[in-house]
Specification:
Layout (H helix, E strand, L loop, with lengths): L1 E4 L6 E4 L2 E4 L2 E4 L4 H8 L8 E7 L4 E7 L7 E7 L1 E8 L10 E7 L5 E4 L3 E7 L4 E7 L8 E3 L21 H4 L4 H6 L6 H10 L3
Antiparallel strand pairs: 1-2, 2-10, 3-4, 5-12, 6-11, 6-13, 7-10, 7-12, 8-9, 8-11
């Protein structure tokens, strides 16, 4: 398992070996030993496993959870291809406002660890792309928030020929600056404390 510390504080990418033959492939997108060595502790207790399936051109996010309670996530794409985006939304973080992007697919089987307070978005590059989430907390609708992925100040890169398909909630999401001004973003220190409590 290859591990990579990303440019967002606390975020990591994991790329497992993929074994292919004439039947297909086998891989393990989560491996406890590699995760524990990188993060310094095992995966958080998983409270929710979810997935979505998206047509080509669907843009989901930037989503995050109010903190507290916050949600840490482990994300991968077992089928199809997505361009994935992480954005540090934690006010006071040394990497606040920074983003990272990487391709997740059923071919590379790469996975991402998102600490509490890091926003997540992806653009589906193929029909029927599936994204799977292992999460530290269950879904509570009123705790789920969004920042616009099309915020020009963020400048997330998207293919020039793509007209993204978004939900009404994502279309009306505030920019990063608007969300910060309205007090909607999580505080870095509160996120760190919420994350520490996951292992209690």
């Amino acid at each position: 398992m290859q591990t990579e510390k990303l440019g967002i504080d606390g975020a990591f990418a994991f790329t497992p070996p993929v074994y292919r033959d004439d039947r297909g492939l086998f891989t393990s997108p989560f491996q406890d030993a590699a995760f524990t060595e990188s993060i310094g502790r095992p995966l958080f207790p998983v409270r929710d496993v979810s997935h979505n399936i998206s047509a080509r051109g669907v843009l989901r996010g930037i989503h995050y959870t109010t903190t507290p309670p916050g949600r840490a996530k482990y994300v991968y794409c077992p089928y199809g291809t997505v361009q994935d985006y992480l954005v540090d939304l934690r006010v006071g973080s040394p990497t606040f406002g920074r983003w990272e992007t990487t391709e997740l697919s059923g071919d590379n089987c790469r996975a991402l660890y998102l600490p509490v307070g890091v926003g997540h978005a992806f653009l589906s590059l193929k029909d029927d792309s599936m994204v799977v989430y292992l999460m530290s907390e269950g879904y509570v609708r009123e705790n789920e928030c969004a920042v616009s992925p099309l915020d020009p100040a963020l400048g997330l890169p998207f293919p020039k020929d793509c007209v993204p398909v978004q939900s009404e909630r994502d279309l009306s999401a505030p920019t990063l600056a608007e969300a910060e001004e309205r007090g909607l973003l999580p505080e870095y220190e509160i996120c760190k404390k919420a994350e520490d409590r996951l292992w209690l």
